[in-house]
Predict the structure.
Amino acid sequence: MINKCVNFIQDIVFAQSCLNCRQLSGTSSAICNQCFTELPANRVCCRQCALPLESGNHQLCGQCQKTSPTFNSAFIPFRYEHPVDQWIWKFKFRNDLVSGKLLADLFLQKIFDSNIVMPEILVPVPLHSSRVRQRGFNQSLWLARHIGKQLGIPVDSRSVRRRLKTPPQHELNIKKRTTILRKAFTLNREFEHQHAAIVDDVLTSGSTMNEISKLLCNNGCATIDCWAIARTALK
């Protein structure tokens, strides 16, 4: 009874407006229950890269059948569609940490409902130093720290470094993405973990995740997962 009263009081005091419908969410979350149920969940997808599929859930997509990526699996709970895409854009380019926290919390809620094996370490996708200065922060590192704190998993933001400044990935087709990302990343030190999850905000072609996975795999990491908030339909 006491716990219920405390939760009720907290919901009233810390209630927020839903970031989607702008109505009072009714809880301390920045999304109401109705809008949560309408989010673009990535339920039907490739079992390895999480590419959204029209049918055949947990089957391999055509690209993974043709060329299997280096990483073992991907946990990406949402499709890159409204309103998730807008929240990611605001978080990434407008430093909207309210949207960032909501995205991280939504990811956590989905992962708590899953039965996946947790990794030993989280590795955020690094940004080039010039882009960090321009943007003010690395959104992947921010997400990894928030998620890692809640899951009790440490974050390694030093082992992998982005040594080449590359154009934004959405400006390139898949062939150019794959080519330009070769040798874009390097390891600063020996990687000693056997199970890692690479963390990013969006997975598009998978080229970035694959290149980092190659580095970790070549340094003895046996199992590599890809964690992201959203997955685009483009590959």
